[in-house]
Amino acid sequence: MKALDPRLSFISFFDKTWRNATSNVVATPEFTFKPDSKEDIIKIIQDAESKGRRVRAVGAGHSFSQVAEPARRDYFVEMFRLNACGIYEENLNPNALKHSNGEDRYFVKAQAGIRIKCLNKALNRIKESPGKRGFALDNMGAFDWQTVSGALSTGTHGTGFHQPAFPDMVRAIVIIGTGGKVTQYEPKTGGITDPVAFRAKYGKTVELEQDDELFYSVVLGLGAMGIIYELVLEVSPTYWIKENRTYVDWETELKPQLLNGYFKKLVEEQYDFVSFRVNPYKTYYKKKRKKTRLCAFVVQKKYKWNERPPERGLMARTRNWIGGIGGNIGLFSWLVVRSLNRKISGAPASINNAIKFTSDPLFVGKSYKVLYQSGLALRKHGISSEFSFDVDYKKLVDIIDGACDHLKHCCNEHGLYQTSHIPVRFVQQSKAYLSPCFTGPKMFVDFPTLEDVQGRKEIMQFTQEYIVNKHDGVPHWGKVNDYIYGCRDFINKHYPMAKKWVKIRDKLDPKGTFLSDFVIKMGLR
Q1: Among 391, 392, 427, 387, residue whose Cα is nearest residue 161
Q2: What is the DSSP annotation of 223-254?
Q3: What letter does residue 483 receive in the DSSP assignment?
Q4: 299 close to 271: Cβ distance less than 8 angstroms
Q5: Helices 347-357 + 321-328 axis angle, to 10
Q6: Residue 476 CB contacts under 8 Å (≥ 6 apart), including other chains
Q7: What is the pLDDT of residues 177-217, one digit of tens each?
């Protein structure tokens, strides 16, 4: 085989083993590259194509599915060195400067390898913002260790019917595709860039494509459209969030609210972000002197920077310190795993303790500090399957009750336990072709567990089978989803634009340079 270019040799590693965050996906590609410029990526792609190899890029490896996994002969590209970000004002179309209500719009450009955690801090420090208070993302997932490109490529979402998922905060995306061609993709409807000013600045070095079909295909592309180099995100001036986190009983409190319409008002009218977590097992509750199914119920509301909620004091400024320590010290999660492996029947009580210890009647903080809902310690131990459903609160009750019965059966018949609560989130409609929310807003029901606990693989496989077959749940691209490998009819049923996405992928990547085994297994070719 022809030797690598000197520059590629300098940034490459041979036979470097890669693991995702939870080590359930492991690969050893022949060549791993760590580029620190656009020119490096262009060379990587051109060299791969000259040798008939594919190219796979990876972010933080936070996906539990095989979406980022490279084959042995793939060129594997780690993006961490590309981590710059800043205010984006160049070549903007004058019509993109204000919302329809007259308020100013703000944009930032972020390179593909920056972690959301670092982006949040960088946005907070930008002084070009009103009042020099910085900027903030309008939403984020419960965790912030992902890179922006990884979160985008798998459709990461938070919660809130009136808040965008990650792909829907993106206004432009720069992709380096086949032959090393650099293209900035934007929607035709609402594109933010002035084409004349763009061509005057970049000439033929970067092409501007303002096309709805292209943009809504590449914006959630599973890494199969090219290498994401940069994104332009629409952001808001820094804002406060007021959070209330309480624990309630499923049967006597939360379930009736879902059935009588009260919960609908909370999630659709009263609060900006709503979620809850259910213990799938009933445990004895001393206060009520009976067995109950405990739930953590979280509501959050946005406030402008100059309209901070009046609550003050240490309790309002800090989140529950017990949950914070437990979630961020690796030793704690290691002890939980060790304890459950010695006595797996302790899982229901362990889940109850987690729900109680993370309750917090009041927390007021900057947006990203409140939206962050997970502990760093769980990055190496937490793994999950997540499923989306059309919004129907009565159906949600059936799903939760059915899932609890299913998990009880797994316990009684197979000795298998779910080792975490069941989170439920609510996500607005999306324009991205491969978003499960393309057809409308969705409810997401998650089944996290601890990777290193006995029976993890079996319980997740049983749960995937149950949720898909019984409730027609649609698995998340970035979570454990191998149950639907080879189910092309399933994909086409739930993603009405899947065939269009495949045609556009083939058009943008005629050589198959960015085609992955994961995409093939999902029937997207």
Answers
A1: 427
A2: T-SSEEEEEEEEEEE-EEEEEEEEEEEIIIII
A3: G
A4: yes
A5: 130
A6: 65, 154, 155, 385, 386, 387, 388, 436, 444
A7: 999 999 999 999 999 999 999 999 999 999 999 999 999 99
Measured distance CA(133)–CA(237) in Å, rounded: 7
Identify the CA nearest to 232 among candidates 177, 182, 162, 184. Answer: 184
Task: Tell me the mean pLDDT per 10 residues along the chain, length 525.
Answer: 85 96 94 97 97 96 94 96 94 91 94 97 85 89 92 95 96 98 96 96 96 98 97 96 94 97 97 97 80 94 92 72 60 80 92 87 91 70 93 98 97 94 97 98 96 92 98 97 96 97 98 97 95
Q: Tokens standing for 2? A: 């022809």
Model confidence, pTM = 0.95
270 and 399 Cβ atoms separated by less than 8 Å:
no
Amino acid at 472: D
C-alpha 155: how far from its chain's center?
6
Say how far apart CA 464 and CA 407 lie, in whole Å: 12
Q: Do the bridges between strand 75-78 and strand 55-58 make them parallel or antiparallel, or are there none, so unpaired?
A: parallel
The DSSP string of 377-411 is GGGTTEEEEEEEEES-HHHHHHHHHHHHHHHHHHH
Q: What angle do CA 291, 294, 298 make, to 5 degrees?
A: 165
- DSSP for 41-52 reads HHHHHHHHHHTT
